[in-house]
Amino acid sequence: MKALDYIALTLVIIGAVNWGLIGFFDWNLVAALFGSMSWLSRIIYAIVGLCGLYLISMYMKIGTVDDAA
Fold first, then answer.
1. What is the DSSP-derived secondary structure letter of residue 26?
2. How many C-beta neighbours within 10 Å does residue 22 have?
3. CB of 52 within 8 A of CB of 46?
4. Maximum distance among all Cα pairs of the chain, rounded to whole angstroms
5. Distance (Å, rounded) from C-alpha 11 to C-alpha 4?
6. What is the pLDDT of residue 67?
7. If exposure means fewest CB atoms within 10 Å of the residue's CB, which of 3, 20, 28, 35 is most exposed?
8. Distance CA 58, CA 2 (A)
9. HSE-up (13 A, CA, CB side) for residue 33
10. End-to-end distance of the chain based on CA atoms, in angstroms?
11. How far apart are alpha carbons 55 and 69 in whole angstroms?
12. What tens digit of pLDDT does each residue of 23-40 get?
């Protein structure tokens, strides 16, 4: 499970950096690399979104760690 957590966190960080680039510089890294809304770009966006949803479970993990301390 720990490896999946790291992979998901890494992909969400990449997504966050992409949104930062869009917000600050109006430049979309995913679109620049893979094309604007190409099938590959859409897959990347979907995977990053799923990872974000998966990481919601970290709130549960943080709660159980805090309760154990």
1. S
2. 14
3. no
4. 48
5. 11
6. 63
7. 3
8. 11
9. 9
10. 22
11. 22
12. 999 999 999 999 998 999
